[in-house]
Structures are given as structure tokens and as C-alpha cells.
Amino acid sequence: MPDNLIQREHLQSEVSSCDPGWILMWYGIRKQSRAVDWSSALRMGELNVVFNLQGCGVVLGERTRLSLVSSTISMCWSHNDLMATRLPGETSHEFVVLSMRPEWLEKTLGEGVESIFQALRKSLISTDSRGELTESPVGFLRAMSSSERDMAMQLADPPCEDQARVIWYAAKVSEIVALHMFRPAGQKEAEPFCVNQRRVNHERIDAVHHWLEEHLDQPLELELLAGDIGCAKHYLSRFYSQQTGKTISRKLRSLRVEKAGRLLLGGKANVTEAALIVGYNSLSHFTKAFVMEKGVKPSEYVSYMM
């Protein structure tokens, strides 16, 4: 890993015998016009949890391919080397990696190992009753929730005194294990991260809608929106379209027209005033958008609704 391109900081680790049971590292890769290899950040034969705060990358391994974008969390494990590359881009790449040894996890989980996701359990149990290897590679990824992103930011800058960091980090590692490795009671076997995916998606969609409502009178700047939401611009556009069947610009138009319609019906603004309030400087563009959403011109909307 080229030191002139990558900053790294050892945040904390727990030592069991001569080997660390887990190790937590922060990495920062400066903005580059070419790809940067960060494979050594992922520890072979250990479960790696990657909090990808900013930037894009790819992780490749045995039957594993993960496409990392901003504000995603992923798990990967393989008994062979994992290859990780930071993709060229206009932003820096920042991520936190928690690596946990299977022996430490198995000891920490105790009898609870039977309640974790099957895919993770297979990676912890190295041999079967005949002594043959049963290790199975792991590779999962999803968007981070707002609470997970806040926690990842805290991992890089813990909110406690230096003397308390050992205790704080140990508690956070236990929290990560408890939140992300256990299969929900009464639910069928699923992959890690799948259970909370719907909730995470809803949170991100709601955040987009809230942001649009707060910026109705301003031109749509996807880069600014994506930055405030905490993900890459191209990823947000694709994600939103896949989840809602609409583009973000189409949703903005709908919100603008809805507000304009309320202003007109309430007698709080005339057509020109309503257009300006919701961000249209051109009356013809406002009329066209209004007709596309409501099927009637804004000048005729009040009488149409009566």
C-alpha cells in the first residue's frame, strides 16, 4: 500500500494471547485520477466490516464482488486474499475497517453463535466432523442508515476522553457484532443486512424528500443533495429511481406544483407569485410543469377545483 497516497490510523484493538482478537483502522486516500490499491487494509481469514464514509471502490474475492460507494457498510471474509481498489474520482476516499478473528468471534459469541446468520456461522466454523474445511467466503453490502453513519464517524473521532477510549471502542465493537450478526428471532434465514434494508431505504427516501421540500425555491443541485444525504451523486440518482420509479427532478416538480396549488387555493398568492415562491423564474415553464402535474393551467386551477 503506497504510503504517499494513503493515510492510516490505528484506532484500537483487543489483544487475545499474541494475536489481536479484533483491530479497528481508519484509512484516508487522497483524491486521485488513477486507481489506488488498498487490499492490505482487509485481513485474510478474518471478518472485515467496512464503513465506507466517502469515495468509491471495489472489493474482489472468491465468489465475492462488492461495489462500494459513499455511505455504505459491507462485510467480507475469505481464506484467500481479497483485492480492494479505490476507483478514480473527484473526491477523497475515507473508510473505517473493523477486522475480527473467527476464534475471537466464536469465543465472544459463545452459545449465541447458533443464532447468527448462517452465512457468517459457516465462516466461523473452520472444519466439519471429518476435519474437512467448511469455510465459506462472505460478501454483503448495503447503504448505511443515518445512525450507522453517525457511529462510523464517531469511530474515527470518539466522543470520550483518551483514557476511556479502550472501554468505548470495546463497547462499540460489541454493538456492531450485536446489531449486524444476529438473525432476527422468528424470521427465516436471510443474508446479513437484508433485514433492515427496507427501513434503511425508507430513511434515505424520506431524507431526499425532506431536503427537496427545504430547497423548493432553489435550482436542483444533485451534488449538494447527495453530499447532505451522505452518498455519491450517481448512486443517489440510480437508487432513487429504482426505489420510487421516478427521477429526483420529477419528484421536485411534483412537490413544487403541490405547494403552488395550495398557495393558489388558499388565496395566499397569485399565479406569478406562486411560481416565484416554488422556484420558477419563468411563468411559461411553471405553467407547463403545472399542466403536466395537474392537467390544468394554474390560472384555471382554483375554478377547476371549486
Q: What can you tell me about this protein's structure?
A:
Helix 5 (197-214) crosses helix 8 and helix 8 (248-265) runs antiparallel to helix 9. The strands form two sheets. The chain has a six-stranded antiparallel beta sheet with strand order 1-2-9-4-7-10. Strands 3-8-5-6 form a four-stranded antiparallel beta sheet, with no helix packed on it. It contains eleven helices and ten strands. The chain folds into three domains: 6-188, Sandwich (Jelly Rolls); 198-249, Arc Repressor Mutant, subunit A (Orthogonal Bundle); 255-305, Orthogonal Bundle (Arc Repressor Mutant, subunit A), CATH 1.10.10. It is of the alpha+beta class and 306 residues long.
Key features of this structure:
306 residues, alpha+beta, Arc Repressor Mutant, subunit A, 3 domains, four-stranded antiparallel β-sheet, 11 helices, 22% strand
Helix-strand blueprint:
Layout lengths: L5 E11 L2 E11 L6 E2 L9 E8 L2 E5 L2 E5 L3 E6 L5 E4 L6 E8 L1 H8 L8 H7 L13 E6 L2 H11 L8 H16 L16 H18 L7 H8 L3 H12 L3 H18 L5 H7 L5 H12 L3 H8 L1
Antiparallel strand pairs: 1-2, 2-9, 3-8, 4-7, 4-9, 5-6, 5-8, 7-10
Helix pairs in contact: 5-8, 8-9
